[in-house]
């Protein structure tokens, strides 16, 4: 299709980032041409990601341009925004699964969660130092590393700016190695604004996919930059426009949730019974209160509800 991802390949045949030396080295290379990876990732997104055409479009654009360029001018920096259960973690793990052997468990994939890694506000200076050293060290051993920052809205403001030197095109940190890295920020910040915009469109009898990226991007930037609780509060990362792709995850409707139920049943090897699909989808809360159009928890609780209905 337009994104170059007709589904011929099965996702398991994905290319992987391997190291020719078997251990960490300066150049982690792709074992098959990146174009094939782009193709397969696009296929996986097209097949399994429900109700997020904007996400698929943006992520594929970013990944395609970045991976096909043997000498990118800057790292790929994407920021995923949306309310709970809309697929932010799902998409990021899908990407690293295709790109890195072992996916999230790969030594080249680094996952940070503020609650786990940066829990105490009083240690922020130490965290800054550690984070900078960790990124520098890992980019030196493998230029094609990925860094995922989860729950950015719970990150202490000011901490994340320590990684600014690794995100832009102008700074030189250990030569040019850092330009092949991928950074993904994940957060609920801006989710409320995205939901409101989607609801407004629905009230105007327009398609939820009609949300323009520009509108979503400016609403999200405002929400994260101006919120003192946000990890991006007054952040240079936003100010200096270091994020290449701000990716809005839209709230999911009832029929999307049904599709999530079907996917989950298939994945668990269970029989797809229409009655169960309907019951699971119906059991999820929807907003607004009266019309009940969009799922309040996306597809997040689908898997656990299925076990209950079986
Ligand atoms: N758009 C989607 N398409 C298909 N499955 C989805 C989608 N969104 C969520 N899911 C399913 O729901 C599960 C939970 O979603 P995910 O963890 O990606 O949510 P999230 O947006 O990261 O939420 P949170 O902000 O709470 O972390 C996924 O593992 C996946 O099975």
Automatic annotation (TrEMBL):
GN (gene name): TOR2A
PANTHER family: TORSIN (PTHR10760), TORSIN-2A (PTHR10760:SF4)
Coiled coil start-end: none
Keywords from the named record: ATP-binding, Endoplasmic reticulum, Glycoprotein, Nucleotide-binding, Signal
InterPro entries for the chain: ClpA/B, P-loop_NTPase, TOR1A_C, Torsin, Torsin_1/2
Sample GO molecular function, one term: ATP hydrolysis activity
Location of the protein in the cell: Endoplasmic reticulum lumen
Residues annotated for ATP binding in this entry: 82-89
Name of this protein: Torsin
Gene3D superfamilies with a match to the protein in the record: P-loop containing nucleotide triphosphate hydrolases
Highest taxon above the source species: Eukaryota
Domain Torsin-1A C-terminal: 252-309
Keyword presence, Glycoprotein: yes
Sequence similarity: Belongs to the ClpA/ClpB family. Torsin subfamily.
Database matches in Pfam families: TOR1A_C, Torsin
CC annotations in GO: endoplasmic reticulum lumen; nuclear envelope
Lineage: Eukaryota, Metazoa, Chordata, Craniata, Vertebrata
């Amino acid at each position: 299709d337009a994104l170059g991802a007709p589904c011929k390949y099965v996702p398991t045949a994905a290319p992987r980032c391997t190291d020719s030396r078997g251990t960490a080295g300066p150049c982690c290379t792709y074992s098959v041409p990146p174009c094939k990876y782009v193709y397969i990732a696009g296929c996986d997104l097209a097949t399994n990601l429900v109700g997020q055409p904007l996400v698929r479009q943006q992520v594929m654009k970013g990944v395609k341009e970045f991976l096909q360029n043997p000498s990118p001018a800057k790292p790929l920096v994407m920021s995923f925004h949306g309310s709970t259960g809309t697929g932010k973690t799902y998409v990021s793990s899908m990407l690293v699964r295709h790109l890195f052997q072992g996916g999230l468990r790969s030594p080249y994939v680094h996952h940070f969660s503020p609650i786990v890694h940066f829990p105490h506000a009083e240690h922020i200076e130490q965290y800054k130092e550690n984070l900078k050293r960790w990124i520098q060290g890992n980019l030196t051993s493998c230029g094609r590393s990925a860094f995922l920052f989860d729950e950015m809205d719970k990150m202490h403001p000011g901490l994340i700016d320590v990684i600014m030197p690794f995100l832009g095109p102008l700074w030189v940190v250990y030569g040019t190695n850092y330009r092949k890295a991928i950074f993904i920020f994940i957060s609920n910040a801006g989710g409320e604004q995205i939901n409101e915009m989607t609801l407004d469109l629905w009230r105007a009898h327009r398609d939820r996919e009609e949300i323009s990226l520009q509108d979503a991007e400016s609403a999200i930037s405002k929400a994260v930059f101006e919120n003192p609780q946000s990890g991006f509060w007054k952040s240079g990362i936003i100010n200096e426009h270091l994020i290449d792709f701000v990716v809005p995850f839209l709230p999911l409707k009832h029929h999307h949730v049904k599709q999530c139920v079907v996917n989950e049943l298939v994945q668990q090897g269970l029989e797809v019974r229409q009655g169960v699909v309907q019951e699971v989808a119906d059991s999820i809360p929807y907003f607004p209160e009266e019309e009940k159009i969009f799922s309040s928890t996306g597809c997040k609780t689908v898997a656990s509800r299925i076990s209950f209905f079986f």
